[in-house]
Amino acid sequence: MQSINGTVRVFRKNPLARSLWVRNSCSKLFVGGLSYDTNETVLKNAFEKHGEIIEVRVIAHHVSGKSRGYGFVRFTSEASAIAALKEMHSQVLDGRNIRVEFARKG
């Protein structure tokens, strides 16, 4: 264990603890491989059958406003996020196979 300014860190010795810490939230999913035509409404409609959604964001270029092909979906519970991840990973949305994984801090 490491202690930095009174904070105990177990990340070096426990990869599971590190992976849990690295996730931004256990209820936030990264969705990659989106069609450039996919908007937040389409993304929300595709994921809402797995649970209550707090936030949906499709990331767009700051100048052109064009989608960058990925986004995030945040659920109210970890169970809903896990269900969505299992069901939606590698599914087709707007003609593209999407990639779904837990979001990480970046």
UniProtKB/TrEMBL annotation:
Keywords for this protein: RNA-binding
Matching InterPro entries: Nucleotide-bd_a/b_plait_sf (IPR012677), RBD_domain_sf (IPR035979), RRM_dom (IPR000504), SLIRP/GR-RBP-like (IPR052462)
Matching SUPFAM superfamilies: RNA-binding domain, RBD
SMART domains on file: RRM
RRM domain mapped to chain residues: 27-105
Organism for this UniProt entry: Hibiscus sabdariffa (roselle)
The organism's place on the tree of life at top rank: Eukaryota
Protein name per its UniProtKB record: RRM domain-containing protein
